[in-house]
Amino acid sequence: MTRLRVSRGWVAAVAGLLLLVPPFYLDAFWLQTGLFAMAAVIAAIGLSLLAGTAGQLSLGHAFFLAIGAYGYTWFADAPHGKGTNALTGLSLPPLLALVAAVLLAGATGALFSPVSGRLRSMYLGVATLALVFIGQHVLLNATPVTGGFNGRSVPPMEIFGFSFSDAGDGLAVLGVPFGGLERLWYFGLVLVVAAYLGARNLLRGRPGRAMGALRDSEVAAAVMGIPATRFRAAAFTVSSMYAGAGGALLALAYQRIVPDTFGLALSMDFLAMLVIGGLGSVAGAAAGAVFVTVLPQLLTHYADQLPLVVAPGSPEPGLGSVDAARYLYGAALVLTLLFLPGGLASLTHCRPTWPWARRSRRTTALLQPSAAATVGGDTLKEHTS
Asked: Based on CB atoms within 10 Å of each CB, which residue in 62, 210, 269, 366 is the most buried?
């Protein structure tokens, strides 16, 4: 066990060092794709805490990502524009605006806690589904805050005078020019590490054990004195805060946000991340988020080199890259449910449950005599001889 822990620590350390290298070698496309994946990882960890640990289903995760994205933009941006194009803002320091956006997402989740604390499984899923449609209506009509259908530009992150944007200050590291995406890459890594450590500590503490007990058996949890309503509401609030942080990072990566980004399809994507990665696993949620986020980008980038896949807007017959990505990770969902019920996370501690392997093990168990029968037979033989 100690050797396994040491090896995992070394793997994590090597992976962390490797993630420091991409800004020195990759171009803007790959860096932005990586930032999309980081934002998805943060939000997926939050949904994993809610669905995998607390056993609650949410279809409104995109709503809280929108709150984080638009909340950061509104808090950090200054009022500008005239007439019908006038946009409001509070002009807060970007770092403070990020914290305020995360707290706003958490406060919104807490306002929904009377519902999330009393409903379970698919009933909560249907209730949260309404949040997505309400959010789309607000984003399209609250034009002074959101910019309406056209969206609004996202102010760059800035910490103590250091701007995470193409500031034109000539910053170079080891001879490599560091623009906005290169700088934002490391800021995203810090957020991902903070989100992972926060989730791991939460799961190892009393709240995590309480939510796990609620998921397994509400009756047993009640016997142990765990207030189900309070812990479900708390799980929903924490999940909302994670989604807000992911939405803010997503807005920084996009540099301009529009309402269509935060529709029902985004919530479905996050459910796919959990199934592919593995329910209840923080690392699995991160792996599923990377898979679902990066796949469409790869197909779009290499559409002209793949058979039957065409680039977006191409008049040639074929399958669009976005549709191809959905087909592929739809197939990944089916294969995961069939052969890896525990998701990608199960690969680290058990063998895949191949159907023919299960049949083979059952056949072997039936043909071999049990240990008890063997021992009993030997004893009877000794007594009779």
From this structure: 62
